[in-house]
Amino acid sequence: MCGIVGYIGDNKACPFLVTGLQRLEYRGYDSAGVATLQQSNGIRLTKVSGRVAELESAIDDRIGQGSLGIGHTRWATHGAANQVNAHPHSGGAGILSLAHNGVIENYESLKLELQNNGYQFVSETDSEVVAHLIADCLKEAAGDEIAPQDCVEAVQAAIARLRGTYGLVIIFRDFDDLLIAARCGSPLVIGVGKNEQFVASDTSPLVGFTDKIVYLADHQLALIRKDNIQVLHRDEGRVRPDIQTLSSETVDVNLEGYPHYMLKEIYEQPQSITNALRGRIDYDNATAKFGGLNLTTQQLRSVKRILLTGCGTSWHSALVGEYLMEELARIPVEVEYASELRYRNPPTDHETIVFGITQSGETADTLAALREMKRKGHHTLAICNVIGSSIAQEADGGVYLHAGPEVGVASTKAFTSQLTVLSMLALYFGRLHHLSFEAGSRIISEMEKLPELVEQTLGCHEQVREIATRYQESDNFLYLGRRFNFPTALEGALKLKEISYIHAEGYPAAEMKHGPIALVDENTPSVFIVPQGTVYEKVLSNLQEVKARGGPVIALTDHVDPQVTKLADDVIQIPQTQDFLQPIIASIPLQLLSYEIALLRGCDVDKPRNLAKSVTVE
Ligand code: M6R
After folding, report:
1. What pLDDT does 250 receive?
2. Same domain assignment for residues 199 and 63
3. Does ligand 1 lie within 6 Å of residue 606's CB atom?
């Protein structure tokens, strides 16, 4: 994971480096560092164990003067989250400095070789190996007199020996007009300015600095000077940089008065769902329409099977998608964790299409799983939020969520937007097969009510806060639901775990009696999602089973009947909708509950421990 930035130009490097790192903290926040170069003083370096805010205070005048620099915010993989392991790392007694995002799999053998050649390692990281390796190659290539071209050749020679993934930014002590960036498996984008250039792990740091961007592809290396960029591909040699315009959706994000991004994003859901629906309803044909699937109607009609994949919350969306597609479209669906799919070899036929669901579009497992399925000849589609992200670029087609930037590590609005898009896809496939015009029209009118229903649901916030106060000390929670709301239960449990560090389990409500019911006691609250529908009575029976064992019950229901009120300790009323849209509504109180409990427990809601927003390592 990790976020990296680089600057070269007429201005001071640090304002961009610090702003960029702040915006990239979602990729990791264990430690941070910057290195800048002022020719007379060489490379100056400062690193902190902790957040970018601490780094900012540690930047002194000497570092602040540099007009060439690199920076890094870390999510630890190799070595503890401390100052020594923080990037940038120096190579060859300070001849160069680099920041790395990714994992070098063969670092141990390379380290041994470099140690035998006399290189001293100070950190436990795989990244320091790359720094010394480049220094070693530079020594080989150049001898005593070093030219910029030697630096390029040294980087090329070093990365040829790396196994694994990397996004690298490198500066050299002897050249104040040279910044090298190289990519294999970890994203990098260059921002093109006037007499200045920027590099970052994604486009968010570039907002407000430039709107001209060049995505670096795998196996490309960029030789960046303040007034020009050269891109070299490992196999193709020099390639023309494809300068694109930064999407206006990549707006600068601020809290707009909210205390946390998570809360802001929860409250943005009426709008983000509206955005997901916008322009995608075809009233004349009572169906949905998508611009980017890149398949003809005939090809889409011939789809016999759908494979949905993703990680974490996006995997939960996939599970809802399975129910949706089977119910509305009658197409067999399989859901697989991307981390499993990438190493499985499932028998599939050429009429199977694969959807990768991902907010960030950078999740390493999802990217690798889609690549593998693409390699096998399947049409791959991304349901993705971040425009121009690696997965969006790699897939054969897809659907953007248009939810706007999601900054809080706990995914909220991306989840409900994913479900909205999946509902529309299910409608679309359903209308290609058996769904009548009338049924399609009914579904559309229900979907159009969603933003208003979510707005109404947010009205439960005060009640949820009060419930959170009573249960904030609990060490365990159960989340239970059935059919469409089984994945909702999983998602509710994940939200609570990740931001409040409380152990929580999501289960299909009826499965509870096969084991988890043993956890029930007076200190273990169970959150039941029990809206009306085909399994309403069944879930009520499961609720009674918990109550009979003394477990406190919080019930989310769209139907306050006396039975529920009598059994549950708390009843949160949610608006009624069609069963297949219930997860969108029911997840709102669950997001608020986890938020309020985390807050009461003094947890860092937007940056929970050990996590990062984008998981770009395996
Ligand atoms: O960006 P992605 O949707 O691919 O991310 C997948 C998971 O890492 C992500 O959903 C994670 O589980 C969230 N922190 C959950 O809130």
Report:
1. 60
2. yes
3. no
Q: What percent of the chain has pLDDT over 90?
A: 82
- Both tokens of 87, joined, read 């990037």
CA distance 292 to 274: 19
User: Are 141 and 67 part of one and the same domain?
Assistant: yes
Which of 395, 417, 448 is the endpoint of a domain? 448
The rounded Å distance from CA 341 to ligand 1 centre is 16
As given in the structure block, the two tokens for residue 541 are 């029976």
In a domain, residue 453? The reply is no
Return the minimum-mean-pLDDT range out of 78-87, 312-321, 390-399, 525-534.
78-87
Average pLDDT over residues 152-181: 96
Based on the fold, state whether residues 62 and 206 are members of the same structural domain: yes
* Residue 258 shares a structural domain with residue 319: yes
Per-residue pLDDT, 109: 96
What is the C-alpha to C-alpha distance for residues 17 and 11, in angstroms, rounded to an integer? 12
Distance between CA 381 and CA 356 in Å, rounded? 6
Burial status of residue 339 (CB atoms within 10 A of its CB: 0-12, 13-18, 19 or more): buried
Whose CA is closest to 65, among 8, 14, 7, 9? 14
Is the confidence at residue 252, as pLDDT, over 60?
no
Is the separation of the CB atoms in 237 and 230 below 8 Å?
no
CATH assignment of the domain containing 68: 3.60.20.10
Q: What is the pLDDT of residue 332?
A: 95
Rounded to the nearest angstrom, the distance between the alpha carbon of 309 and the centre of ligand 1 is: 12
Cβ distance 353 to 333 under 8 Å?
no
**Residue of the CA atom closest to atom 14 of ligand 1:** 410
512 in any annotated domain: yes
Q: What is the mean predicted confidence (pLDDT) over 201-219?
A: 93
Half-sphere exposure of 191 (CA within 13 A, CB side): 26
CATH of residue 354's domain is 3.40.50.10490
Average pLDDT across the chain, whole number: 94
User: According to the model, what pLDDT value does residue 460 have?
Assistant: 98
- The answer to whether position 610 is within a domain reads no
pLDDT the model gives residue 349: 84
* Same domain (yes/no): 190, 280: no
Which range of residues forms the domain containing residue 88? 3-245
Rounded average pLDDT over 437-458? 98
Rounded Cα distance between 203 and 41, Å, is: 31
Please check whether residues 91 and 200 belong to one and the same domain. Answer: yes
Are residues 483 and 435 both part of a single domain? no
Catalytic residue ranges:
2, 613
For 234, other C-beta atoms within 10 Å of its C-beta total 14
217's CB contacts (< 8 A; 6+ apart) are 183, 233
> Is residue 356 in contact with ligand 1, taking CB distance under 6 Å?
no
Phi/psi of residue 63, each to 5°?
-75, -40
pLDDT at position 251 is 59
Total tally of structural domains belonging to the chain: 3
The token pair at 520 is 């029930």
Domain for residue 470, yes or no? yes
Mutation test of ligand 1: which of 313, 358, 384, 422 has the most ligand atoms closer than 8 Å to its C-beta?
313
Query: Given 399, 427, 448, which residue is the final one in a domain?
Result: 448
pLDDT band at 143 (very low <50, low <70, confident <90, very high): low
360 lines ligand 1 (CB under 6 A): yes
For residues 387 and 401, what is the distance between their CA atoms, to the nearest angstrom?
Answer: 9
Residue 204 is encoded by which pair of tokens?
């968010």
Cβ pair 238, 156 in contact under 8 A: no
225 and 373 inside one domain: no
